[in-house]
Amino acid sequence: MDAQRDAVRSRLVIAAIECLEKEGMHGVRVRSIARQAGVNAAAINYYFGNKETLIGLALEQALQEAFINNSRQCFEQMGLAPLPALRRYCLDTLEGGLRHPRLTKAFFSGSGINEAKQISMTRRFQTLIDYLQKHLHPVVAAKDRADMPLRLMQLLGVVIFAAIDGALVRATTGIDLSNDDQRQRYIDLLLARFFPSQNIGEKGENR
């Protein structure tokens, strides 16, 4: 019974993530989530109590996968030096956000999520900043270290904003983020601005 319950809950969370991307935070409906999961709409209240709790859990899971787990892959599993790993992470974050702009926007809108979930998601994002700082601190120039949390927050903020509204980036800068080369150029320009004392290579070495 527990296995069946967990399977249904998991299907509903995944369905909620998919519906958030299709319909947006304000457009997503209980019936569309249930239909996507292949269950009766009453199952959402039965397993989660209400739609808001389900949406909060869905966003937490998506946040964990998109930001936390991906950072570990870039910094621990790809054999890259820390700064090229940051470059890879920023590119992956931008590419993922461009594929899922509504879901990315939902992460940071705060609306429709109860206070406890907002606090939990904020803590997860703080954990991400701490993780990035830990890996970058030994290789970043001394003068760039003092305000590194602020630099990382600003860097990720610009990457996330670009993912949400690539059309505005193109209109104001001429950079087409749907193009691989221009997307890489955009990230390289950002890294050069936020870490001007570093020369970040692409193949795994800090140059």
In words, what does this structure look like?
- The protein is mainly alpha-helical and 207 residues long.
- It has a domain at 59-194: Tetracycline Repressor, domain 2 (Orthogonal Bundle), CATH 1.10.357.
- It contains eleven helices and no strands.
- It has helices spanning 2-23, 30-37, 42-48, 51-77, 82-99, 101-109, 115-136, 142-145, 148-164, 166-173, 180-194.
- The longest helix has 27 residues, at 51-77.
- The termini are far apart.
Topology:
Layout: H1 2-23, H2 30-37, H3 42-48, H4 51-77, H5 82-99, H6 101-109, H7 115-136, H8 142-145, H9 148-164, H10 166-173, H11 180-194
Helix pairs in contact: 1-2, 1-4, 1-6, 4-5, 4-7, 5-6, 5-9, 5-11, 7-9, 9-10, 9-11
The structural class is mainly alpha
CATH topology of the domain at 59-194: Tetracycline Repressor, domain 2
State the oligomer: single chain
The major beta sheet can be summarized as: none
CATH architecture of the domain at 59-194: Orthogonal Bundle
Average pLDDT value? 87
Summarize the structure.
The protein is mainly alpha-helical and 207 residues long. It has helices at 2-23, 30-37, 42-48, 51-77, 82-99, 101-109, 115-136, 142-145, 148-164, 166-173, 180-194.
Features:
Tetracycline Repressor, domain 2; 207 residues; mainly alpha; 11 helices
